[in-house]
Write a structure and sequence with these properties.
Layout lengths: L6 E3 L12 E3 L17 E21 L4 E9 L4 E2 L3 E12 L5 E6 L5 E8 L5 E15 L2 E2 L11 H4 L13 H11 L5 H15 L1 E2 L8 H7 L1 E2 L1 H14 L4 E8 L4 E5 L2 E5 L4 E10 L3 E5 L12 E7 L11 E5 L8 E21 L8 E3 L2 E5 L2 E3 L21 E6 L17 E2 L8 E3 L8 E3 L5 E9 L3 E14 L2 E10 L5 E7 L3 E2 L10 E6 L5 E2 L2 E11 L2 E8 L9 E5 L7 E3 L1 E3 L1 E7 L2
Parallel strand pairs: 3-21, 10-22, 11-12, 15-38
Antiparallel strand pairs: 1-23, 2-22, 3-9, 3-20, 4-8, 4-19, 5-6, 6-9, 7-8, 13-16, 13-18, 14-15, 16-17, 19-26, 24-40, 25-26, 27-36, 28-35, 28-37, 29-33, 29-34, 29-36, 29-40, 30-31, 30-32, 30-35, 36-39, 37-38
Helix pairs in contact: 2-5, 3-5, 4-5
Length: 588
């Protein structure tokens, strides 16, 4: 098994060597993939959410020059029921500012209900407004599953979701080999599924714009966006004989809190397109998973729209196609905005941190199933450290820049769209633009009553020069600065160390999208190895967003925090990591 270090299976005298079976709640195998060991970040979650959501998506399409035909496609979200997540759709409506020449509805082979509108020789902008009401609920109580592994007796309609595709390469030799290694010895489907998902969670880091969206790219490079997470999880599970289908839909930015033993964890997604999976259990049916951080459920902030074998097949929703007169070029102008009003929102979620599971954040409801527990032997203790020099005696000459550096700078998320390409159908001159999953993951961090902080960790002494944040200035007046603090020893900001120069809002350039804004430490503080925090301070009424990455691609799981004016300590954590960079000098 790749990266698994010295794993052995627990024994029981009664059961015989290597045959101990356990029936437990929250079954995550204790796999630790790297040395030195890191603390597990698996949370057992229970409770529920129920919300009445008034949803509206508005698209404005400006036809390309000399357009002969324009076709817009939509998939109607429908009711869905699973053991953990349900969706009930009412008041669906789709209307256009310019009546189409033709409007028709159909169902594809996956059961998706497609609405297609066609305009002949359109010349004026067309606004499409899709609205609906969704009663969404997530209920996280104890689940029982007795589905065996390997699975057998699957119907032909279910076996369809074992297929290898161009994006979900279940037949890739390396993926098949890893799937076999991960599921070796599993006797229940859940045991096999959770071993695969635990590996995916720890193997992957989130980036918004990967070079490819395939499972094989994610497998080999260990990074990608939601499509990569879904494709990789699906490829590994299908390789192991577990049916998986890809789901496309919308996530909403309404944050929600989970009460934990150490305080409150705030969860938040971007508002926009998202991809996740549903796994088939013979005794449970299709159960949703978000391979980025949720097992056996998704939040009720998800609106389920379209399903298929991969994200190439789930392309009907939001598809724009057109033909133009010969000799003309260009593509339609496009803008999309999403609004969601939570008419009611009831959330009561509690989570308890476990001492097993992945090193990266993952939530799962209580599960009762049979599994074989795997125990990891601890590594030998590290050598005794060499006594360090005094900070003042070190020669700081080597430039050092690090942090969570990857984000899509200077992108206008309102108009972002996939590239124009020829359609897969053999229609002369027909072009298309598909939806993309480029979403604005950002937090409004200058709101009154809250302050946000991001941790960073030094592994060597450093003379600190500046800290940069990925910010977007929308307007307002006032000033910004950063406060540098030591960690208090419990994963929270503690003793203040230094403060940057104060940056007036008029010195921050007005730009499209997000860009680095650097704050200078004029006194160049000398920092010993350890954990530190930078917290954004402000006065006046600035309107600023700070970009973030899903998960924790660089730092620890508790490394992003906020506090309100009522908080004495920084007891509130965030499920994502802000994009930041730290610059200074270290020794050669």
């Amino acid at each position: 098994m790749n990266k698994v270090q010295r794993i052995r299976t627990a024994r029981s005298p009664a059961a015989g060597p290597f045959r101990t079976e356990h029936v437990l709640l929250c079954l995550f195998t204790c796999l630790f993939y790297m040395l030195p060991p890191c603390e597990a970040e698996n949370y057992l979650i229970n409770g529920g959410q129920e919300s009445q959501i008034d949803y509206k998506m508005e698209q404005r399409v400006q036809p390309a020059p000399a357009t002969r035909k324009l076709i817009l496609s939509y998939v109607m979200p429908e009711n869905f029921q699973s053991p953990t997540y349900s969706q009930k759709i009412t008041r669906f409506d789709l209307r256009f500012s310019v009546n189409p020449s033709e409007r028709k509805e159909s169902r594809d082979e996956r059961g998706n209900r497609i609405i297609q509108a066609t305009w002949k020789k359109p010349r004026q902008p067309i606004t499409a407004t899709l609205s609906l009401a969704a009663l969404n609920s997530t209920k996280l109580a104890r689940l029982k599953t007795r589905a065996p592994f390997p699975l057998d007796g699957l119907g032909s309609d279910i076996k369809e979701y074992l297929r290898s595709t161009r994006q979900v390469e279940a037949g890739d030799p390396a993926i098949r080999r890893t799937a076999r290694e991960l599921t070796a010895g599993a006797e229940t489907e859940f045991d096999a599924v959770q071993k695969i998902l635990t590996w995916v969670v720890d193997h992957m880091s989130y980036v918004l714009i990967p070079e490819s969206y395939t499972a094989s790219y994610a497998f080999r490079h260990g990074k990608g966006n939601c499509q990569n997470y879904s494709h990789l999880a699906a490829a590994l599970m299908r390789s192991a004989g577990i049916p998986v289908r890809i789901v496309n839909g919308i996530t909403l930015k309404q944050a929600y809190d989970i009460t934990t033993g150490g305080g409150v964890m705030t969860m938040k997604m971007a508002q926009g397109r998202h991809s996740w999976i549903e796994v088939f259990f013979p005794d449970l049916g299709w159960v949703p998973f978000d391979p980025q951080q949720m097992q056996l459920f998704v939040s009720n902030r998800f609106i389920r729209v379209e399903v298929g074998l991969d994200n190439e097949e789930t392309a009907n929703d939001g598809l724009v196609r057109w033909t133009q007169s010969r000799g003309t070029q260009g593509r339609p102008g496009f803008q999309e905005s999403i609004e969601a009003n939570f008419a009611s929102d009831q959330v009561a979620l509690n989570a308890e941190k476990q001492n097993y599971g992945p090193k990266k954040l993952l939530f799962t409801p209580p599960v009762e199933a049979v599994f074989k527990r795997i125990i990891v032997e601890p590594p030998p203790p590290p050598p005794e450290p060499v006594p360090p020099k005094k900070l003042e005696e070190i020669s700081y000459t080597k430039p050092n820049l690090f942090g969570n550096l990857e984000f899509p700078d200077k992108i206008d998320f309102l108009t972002a769209r996939g590239p124009a390409r020829r359609t897969d159908e053999q229609i002369e001159g027909e072009m298309e633009m598909r939806k993309n999953f480029l979403v604005e993951t950002a937090e409004y961090v200058t709101t009154q009553g809250r302050q946000y902080a991001q941790t960073f960790i030094l592994d060597r002494p450093m003379k600190l020069g500046a800290a940069g944040l990925a910010l977007h200035k929308f307007g307002g007046d006032g000033q910004l600065w950063l406060e540098l603090m030591r960690d208090d020893g419990s994963g929270r900001p503690g003793e203040p160390v230094a403060t940057t120069e104060i940056l007036p809002m008029n010195r921050i350039p007005a730009a499209t999208g997000y860009d680095w804004v650097d704050f200078t430490f004029n006194d160049r503080p000398l920092l010993s190895p350890g954990r530190y925090w930078v917290a954004l301070g402000f006065t006046g009424s600035p309107i600023v967003n700070w970009f973030f990455s899903y998960g924790k691609p660089v730092g620890p799981a508790d490394g992003t925090r906020y506090r309100t004016i009522f908080d004495v300590v920084w007891s509130r954590s965030l499920s994502f990591e802000f994009n930041y960079r730290i610059a200074g000098l270290t020794a050669e």
